[in-house]
Design a protein that fits this description.
CATH superfamily of the largest domain: P-loop containing nucleotide triphosphate hydrolases
Number of strands: 10
Number of domains: 2
Order of helices and strands: EEEHEEHEHHHEHEHEEHH
Strand order of the largest sheet: 6-7-8-3-9-10
CATH architecture of the largest domain: 3-Layer(aba) Sandwich
Length: 255
C-alpha cells in the first residue's frame, strides 16, 4: 500500500464530499483542506453534519459522492482498517474499552495488536519486555500509570476516555479524530483531558468535534464551522469569534 506523503501540506482534502440518508444530505458538497499539524476543531449546532463528516474521513461511512484524500492518497474507497494502517485513528462518542481488564492490559493488548496483529495473552518473555516499554510510555503520556493495575470499569468517566485515547495512540497515528472527547466530564476531568490533547498534539494532527466553546477557543489552531451539512466558515479562534455569519448561526453564543 502506498504511504502518505508527509510533505503534502494537508492532512485531509475533500472534493464535493456528500453523504445522503434517504435523500437527506447530512454532508453536502464539502470541499475543504485540513492543514497538517495542530488542533483542528469542527463545531456547529446539532445536525450540522460534524460526526457524519468524521465518519466519512475515517471510512465508517462511504460517501454518496465526492472524494477524500489523505496525505496525497485517494482514500475514498478504503475500508477503516486500511485507513488506520495509513495513520488515521478514530475515537467515538461512546467509550470503547475492555471494562473487565486492567488499564495496563487494555493498552498492552492495543500495542500488541499493532506490533503482532494479535491479542494473545500468552507471549514469550522476550516479547513481553518490548511491549511493556511501549505500554508504560503510553500510560505515562495519558497520565494513567499510577492506576495501571486498576480494572478499567472502575475508572472515572474522564479516565476511561483518556484510556480510550491511549488505545488509539498505540498505533502512533499521524491523524487522530476525537469525537466529543469531553462529553460528560467534570471540570477537573475536562482540564486533564485538554492537557492530554495538548501533550500529544506535537508531531501529529488532532481533529476534534467539540461543543465546549471555552475549550474550543483555547485549544484550537483552526476552527471549521459546519451548518446544515456545509462549511459555514474556517479560521483561527479570533477570526471565528468575530465572524458575523457564525454569530448569527450561534445566536451570539461565541461573543
Amino acid at each position: 500500500m502506498k504511504k502518505p506523503d508527509k510533505s503534502v501540506a494537508y492532512a485531509f482534502k475533500t472534493e464535493g464530499l456528500t453523504r445522503a440518508f434517504s435523500g437527506f444530505r447530512a454532508v453536502n458538497e464539502v470541499s475543504i483542506e485540513i492543514p497538517r499539524g495542530g488542533v483542528r476543531t469542527i463545531i456547529g449546532p446539532n445536525g450540522a453534519g460534524k460526526t457524519t463528516f468524521f465518519n466519512l474521513l475515517s471510512g465508517l461511512f462511504p460517501p454518496t459522492s465526492g472524494r477524500i484524500y489523505f496525505g496525497g492518497i485517494d482514500v475514498t474507497a478504503l475500508d477503516p482498517y486500511r485507513r488506520a494502517r495509513l495513520g488515521i485513528a478514530r475515537s467515538f462518542q461512546i467509550t470503547n474499552i475492555f471494562a473487565k481488564l486492567s488499564v495496563y492490559e487494555n493498552v498492552r493488548l492495543a500495542v500488541q495488536a499493532v506490533h503482532d496483529g494479535s491479542a494473545n495473552f500468552f507471549l514469550p518473555a522476550r516479547r513481553m519486555g518490548d511491549l511493556a516499554t511501549k505500554t508504560q510510555a503510553i500510560l505515562g503520556d495519558i497520565g494513567l500509570l499510577p492506576v495501571a493495575e486498576s480494572l478499567a470499569e472502575n475508572l472515572s468517566h474522564g479516565d476511561q476516555r483518556r484510556l480510550e485515547i491511549g488505545l488509539v495512540l498505540a498505533r502512533d497515528p499521524d491523524v487522530l479524530l476525537l469525537d466529543e472527547p469531553l462529553a460528560g466530564m467534570s471540570p477537573t476531568e475536562t482540564h486533564a483531558t485538554v492537557e492530554l490533547i495538548r501533550r500529544i498534539s506535537p508531531g501529529r494532527t488532532i481533529m476534534l468535534v467539540e461543543h465546549d466553546m471555552d475549550v474550543v477557543m483555547s485549544i484550537s489552531t483552526s476552527i471549521t464551522v459546519m451548518q446544515t451539512g456545509q462549511v459555514l466558515a474556517v479560521g483561527t479562534p479570533d477570526e471565528i469569534r468575530a465572524n458575523e455569519a457564525v454569530q448569527r448561526a450561534y445566536l451570539g453564543g461565541l461573543a
